[in-house]
């Protein structure tokens, strides 16, 4: 008996060594942690329960049958993050470069099936040379099996992809289907075709970092939702993100203890809006003053800064925030900001997370670049996302809500539950100057008349009261009481029930 127990110990020790000490050292030398070290940091201490530690590949081509390390290049299982369950897979670059074989894929599929069945999120740690070259189509089949599960799990359990090494070729499409992608700066990259192929086909010379590094994907392509300086920072921050999320679409996000008065008064908000309507201010200040303890977990911080998206808690409950940012392009809606916010709104709605919308928007960005790029279709994504969302929706208009953008930004007409405005709100088809130039074109040469017309227009529309008269704004509120009003609004909506008509699925303009 003792021998048998010792044997198990030996086998486990062998499995834990992955591709061997030399390759572990090489991984460390690049500033990367191993697959197991990453899981240890991500999960609560001693909470990890591993599956399939002794799985080996069955391939017999290219002499690979002589090399059958335990685990086959991926560590899988489940554990907890602050006591809440999560399934994890972590690719082991020390075993065949973390490449995906038939059995490697099966291990991932097994935990994904369990996650769906048991209602817990999946976090995938990607560090892989892609399809196991020796296995050919069996490996491609394995990828497709994972993709299919990613698709089925979408909207059922949150899926988070951490790119902590190479992720290239078709392998990128599994993370691409998941809800969030995060990357590590300088040690991770994602691309469909690498620098060599790019050079052959297009003659462009780029490094892997330029083509698909963290900076590229957080700032240019928006494929990634955030980037971190190293493995430790990423894993710590993902634990923080996880705490905002529900375990599945059958669940509500967790309520955390809070030490911040929901009725907190913020006198400084009464002077947040500058006297000059063209002067910007930082919308993040308002978010921080509404949120419990000022904590804002921003998503896609480095992309389309004219709109802010992220999570806060109000009275301990997770709320998704979408806010125009007057500091960037005057907070205008354009292709990028519409896409960014639409995807975020849909995530919140899929996972029962209420949405707070803060509005200061001068409209949609004009120009050929926008029209040729399809701003009509992309703007419609955000409109669609808000209109179909059935979670509690609270909106606060701080200043401008002009034109179509007024409708889009979670207006009353798109089933907004509470639509508040500050007294500084201006709700109109457009700004006074533009309106007067169109309505009184024949008087443009008479500066005094135009000034009087502009003033008339401002008196009539540069306020929230016309909209309030019609019931499109539920209440004009004092800026200093915004946190209290918003908190009470969400509290009153905790029992909200609203459904959409039966359909196979919608046809959002993609
Ligand atoms: C088998 C692989 C492998 C792979 C790497 N290795 N990639 N083994 N299949 N795809 C092995 C190497 O042989 C090596 O083994 C070890 O992993 C580490 O690789 P190195 O090249 O030494 O590491 P590094 O210099 O860091 O380069 C990493 C790399 C490079 C950039 C990922 O290995 C590489 O280019 N690999 C091939 C990538 C690729 O073309 N994959 C197929 C893509 S197509 P030893 O024994 O020396 O440690 C694809 C399609 C998916 O993935 C389709 C889905 C639909």
Task: Summarize this entry quickly.
The protein is of the alpha/beta class and 510 residues long. The chain contains 19 helices and 17 strands. It is elongated and about 95 Å long.
Helices and strands, with pairings:
Layout (H helix, E strand, L loop, with lengths): L1 H15 L4 H9 L5 H8 L6 E3 L22 E8 L2 E8 L10 H17 L3 E5 L10 H17 L5 E5 L2 E3 L4 H5 L2 E5 L4 E3 L3 H8 L5 H5 L1 H7 L5 E3 L2 H12 L40 H8 L6 E3 L7 E8 L2 E8 L10 H16 L4 E7 L6 H5 L2 H14 L4 E10 H6 L9 E4 L4 E3 L3 H8 L7 H15 L3 H5 L5 E2 L5 H11 L18
Parallel strand pairs: 3-4, 4-5, 5-7, 6-8, 7-9, 12-13, 13-14, 14-15, 14-16, 15-17
Antiparallel strand pairs: 1-2, 2-3, 10-11, 11-12
The protein binds hexanoyl-coenzyme A.
Features:
510 residues, alpha/beta, 2-enoyl-CoA Hydratase, Chain A, domain 1, 3 domains, 8-stranded mixed β-sheet, 7-stranded mixed β-sheet, 19 helices, elongated, binds hexanoyl-coenzyme A
């Amino acid at each position: 008996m003792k021998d048998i127990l010792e044997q198990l110990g030996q086998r486990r020790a062998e499995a834990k060594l992955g591709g061997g000490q030399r390759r572990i050292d090489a991984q460390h030398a690049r500033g990367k942690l191993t697959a197991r070290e990453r899981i240890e940091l991500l999960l609560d201490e001693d909470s990890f329960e591993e599956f399939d530690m002794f799985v080996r590949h069955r391939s017999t081509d290219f002499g690979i049958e002589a090399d059958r390390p335990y685990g086959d290049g991926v560590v899988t299982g489940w554990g907890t993050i602050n006591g809440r369950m999560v399934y994890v897979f972590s690719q082991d670059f020390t075993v065949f470069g973390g490449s995906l074989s038939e059995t490697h894929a099966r291990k991932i599929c097994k935990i994904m099936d369990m996650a769906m069945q048991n209602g817990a999120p999946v976090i995938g740690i990607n560090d892989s040379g892609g399809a196991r070259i020796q296995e050919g189509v069996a490996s491609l089949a394995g990828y497709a099996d994972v993709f299919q599960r990613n698709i089925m799990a979408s909207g059922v359990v949150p899926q988070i992809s951490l790119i902590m090494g190479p992720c290239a070729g078709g392998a990128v499409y599994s993370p691409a289907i998941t809800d969030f992608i995060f990357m590590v700066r300088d040690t991770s990259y994602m691309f469909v075709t690498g620098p060599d192929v790019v050079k052959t086909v297009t003659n462009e010379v780029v490094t892997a970092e330029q083509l698909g590094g963290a900076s590229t994907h957080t700032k240019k392509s928006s494929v990634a939702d955030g980037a971190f300086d190293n493995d430790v920072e990423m894993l710590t921050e993902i634990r923080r993100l996880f705490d905002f999320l529900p375990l599945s679409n059958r669940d509500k996000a967790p309520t955390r203890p809070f030490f911040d008065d929901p009725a907190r008064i913020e006198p400084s908000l009464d002077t947040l809006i500058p006297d000059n309507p063209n002067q910007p201010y930082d919308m993040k200040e308002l978010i921080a003053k509404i949120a419990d303890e000022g904590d804002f977990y921003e998503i896609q911080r480095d992309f389309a800064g004219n709109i802010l998206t992220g999570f806060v808690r109000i009275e301990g409950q997770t709320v998704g925030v979408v806010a125009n940012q007057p500091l960037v392009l005057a907070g205008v809606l354009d292709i990028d900001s519409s896409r960014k916010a639409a995807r975020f709104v849909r995530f919140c709605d899929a996972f029962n997370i209420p949405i707070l919308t803060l509005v200061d928007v001068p409209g949609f960005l004009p120009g050929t670049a926008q029209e040729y790029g399809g701003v009509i279709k992309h703007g419609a994504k955000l409109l669609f996302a808000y209109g179909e969302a059935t979670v509690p929706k609270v909106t606060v208009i701080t200043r401008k809500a002009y034109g179509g953008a007024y409708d889009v930004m979670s207006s009353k007409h798109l089933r907004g539950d509470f639509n508040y405005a500050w007294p500084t709100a201006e709700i109109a088809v457009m700004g006074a100057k533009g309106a007067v130039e169109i309505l009184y074109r024949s008087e443009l040469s008479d500066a005094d008349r135009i000034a009087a017309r502009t003033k008339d227009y401002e008196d009539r529309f540069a306020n929230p009261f016309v909209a309030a008269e019609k019931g499109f704004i539920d209440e004009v509120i004092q800026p200093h009481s915004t946190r209290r009003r918003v908190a009470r609004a969400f509290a009153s909506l905790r029992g909200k029930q609203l459904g959409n008509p039966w359909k196979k699925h919608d046809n959002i303009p993609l």
